[in-house]
Amino acid sequence: MGRKSLKPIRQKAIIKAFYAVARKEGLENASIAKVASVLDVNPSLVIHYFKTKQDLIHGLIEYILERYRLIYNPENGTSNPAMRLRKVIRNLFSRKWDKLIDDGVFYSSFSLIFRDRTVKAHYKKMHDHLRQMLTDTLQEANDNGVIEVDDVEETADLVFILVEGAYYYLSMVSDKTEYDRRIEHYQRTVLTMLKVKDTFLHAEPDLAVRK
Predict the structure, then answer these.
(1) pLDDT (tens digit, 9 = 90+) per residue, 114-172?
(2) Comparing C-alpha atoms, which of 13, 21, 26, 182 is closest to residue 103?
(3) Cα distances (Å, whole numbers) of residue 10 to 13, 41, 122, 168
(4) Residue-wise over 121-149: b if at least 16 C-beta within 10 A, else e?
(5) For the domain that residue 135 is a member of, what is the CATH number?
(6) Would residue 57 count as lying in a domain?
(7) Mean pLDDT of the chain
(8) How far is the C-alpha of 161 from the C-alpha of 152, rounded, in Å?
């Protein structure tokens, strides 16, 4: 039996180091040399796995997708549909986004879609994947009578757009009271859109927004 390849492990370590540098100094100032310095290795080792900074950026976007899956797919597949929906909605409108990926790194990477087709394709793939995960969660809830919507895919699309808009706007809100008030409003809006059954709101108290 052959030895397990260390390539994925080393690539992930390099990407995490690249993210750390980009978070501290800005994506535009991050470099292969600085990543090598953080890892205390020769730059040639980084180049062995990522030939250019652009390759590192592509790897970073995949890392962002991996982190965002934690928001859309909580607890690795909670079996109870109502509980799963509860956790997804609670996660979508929370401060967990800030803990997953730094806003500066995310938007600096995102801005590259306007001049790099590969980056644009990566972001499109990432958002399509997250949208599908949300669609699957709503479909499960709809099939089990937790919510009542006529077109699950269209509703998931609208919720996804609301989440993206909220994430963008809330990144500029510093006041905690205003932040929490808007979070509550967005959650209520989604619950109304989904027509969550009263029986589940009472059975799952965390699904309802606290007054």
Answers:
(1) 998 988 998 898 889 889 989 999 999 999 999 999 999 999 999 999 988 988 898 88
(2) 26
(3) 5, 12, 21, 32
(4) ebbeebeeebbebbbebbbbbbeeebbeb
(5) 1.10.357.10
(6) no
(7) 86
(8) 14
Which range of residues forms the domain containing residue 108? Answer: 74-203
CA 50, CA 140: separation in Å to the nearest integer? 40
Q: Residue 200: is its pLDDT beyond 80?
A: no
Residue (of 102, 126, 112, 115) closest to 22 by Cα position: 102
Q: Where are the alpha helices (DSSP H) in the chain?
A: 7-25, 32-39, 43-49, 53-72, 81-92, 96-100, 103-110, 117-143, 152-170, 176-194, 198-203
Tell me which DSSP letter residue 151 carries.
Answer: -
As a dihedral over the C-alpha atoms of residue 54, residue 121, residue 114, residue 66, rounded to 10 degrees, the angle is -70
Is 5 among the domain residues? no
Per-residue confidence (pLDDT) for residue 78, from 0 to 100:
61
Q: What is the pLDDT of residue 1?
A: 47
Q: Do the domain assignments include residue 163?
A: yes
**The predicted structure's pLDDT at residue 94:** 79
**Prediction pTM value:** 0.78
Task: Determine the length of the chain.
Answer: 211
128 domain residue, yes or no:
yes
Q: How many domains does the chain have?
A: 1
